[in-house]
Amino acid sequence: MTGSLLDGKIAFITGSTRGIGWAAARMLARHGASVVLNGKSDRELLDRRVAEIRDEFGVTATGLCADAGDIEAVRGCYREIFQQFKRLDVLVNNAGILEGALLGMITDALIKRNFEINTFGSIYHLQEASRLMARNKSGSIINLTSILGRMGSEGQAVYSASKAAIIGLTLSAAKELASKNIRVNAVAPGFIETDMVANLPDKTRQERLSNIRMGRAGQPDDVAGSILFLASDYSSYVTGQVLGVDGGMIV
Interhelix angle for 220-231 vs 19-30, to 10°? Predict the structure, then answer.
């Protein structure tokens, strides 16, 4: 263990076997949190990630397979967390998909997938986490939205809408849960090098990079650092905020 910002904290990171979620899990574990990892269906990968966390940071780690869009599976996660830890201090509401299509080409299936995972799943997790956090009258919920949820992008109307909804969710939940000492904030990443953007056409990639004032794509750890701040007591008076992590990107 190399830090103590989160000693004694229990953190649940959804969608945490790769990308931003994996970076966040490692960051929180590095600073002393016991972490609950989550993947949708690949139990072997999830178990491997749990073992990596334990071996590298010496903290308690466990893994839960669950689809964010399945309300019963989500509820089962929180029953497991309560049985094992009796509390939850941090939720990183990260699980999501990126699927796009131009207007006129958008299918019902695409709309359903984006909203089931990105929006409904975030609502399910926030609601269940807040119930568990309310038992101890404290907690930090960090929702992952996107720069596209704030500014939109050609070919991403559905994804952008699903992520814009997370901003409204964050602002409303922050107001409702403040009296319970539960903070709710969002992180809005820009162009981050993850599997979600690995298959973008070269032209699109270069266009995105050219719009970043800092001149480089972001890395998952750039986002994880902001998540650490919002999870820690350094942000104890911060709620209802949307923190852009985009290098000065203009979509």
Answer: 50
Q: What is the pTM of this model?
A: 0.93
CATH code: domain of residue 30: 3.40.50.720
Q: Write out the residue range of the structural domain in which residue 91 sits.
A: 10-244
Asked if residues 20 and 224 have their Cβ atoms less than 8 Å apart, the reply is yes
pLDDT in tens, the chain (251 residues): 445 899 999 999 999 999 999 999 999 999 999 999 999 989 999 999 999 999 999 999 999 999 999 999 999 999 999 999 999 999 999 999 888 888 889 999 999 999 999 999 999 999 999 999 999 999 999 999 999 999 988 888 999 999 999 999 999 999 999 999 999 999 999 989 887 677 777 777 788 888 888 888 889 999 999 999 999 999 999 999 999 999 998 76
Q: CA 164, CA 159: separation in Å to the nearest integer?
A: 9
Say how far residue 142 (Cα) sits from the centre of its chain: 7
Residue 90 burial (C-beta neighbours within 10 Å; 0-12, 13-18, 19+): buried
**Distance in angstroms (rounded) separating the CA atoms of residues 226 and 94:** 13
Q: Are 228 and 5 in contact (CB under 8 A)?
A: yes
Name the DSSP letter for residue 237: T
Please indicate, yes or no, if residue 64 is contained in any of the structural domains. yes
**154 lies in some domain:** yes
Catalytic residues: 159
Number of domains in the chain: 1
Half-sphere exposure of 97 (CA within 13 A, CB side): 18
Helix, strand, coil percent content, the chain, rounded in steps of 5: 50, 15, 35
Residue 1 domain-assigned (yes or no): no
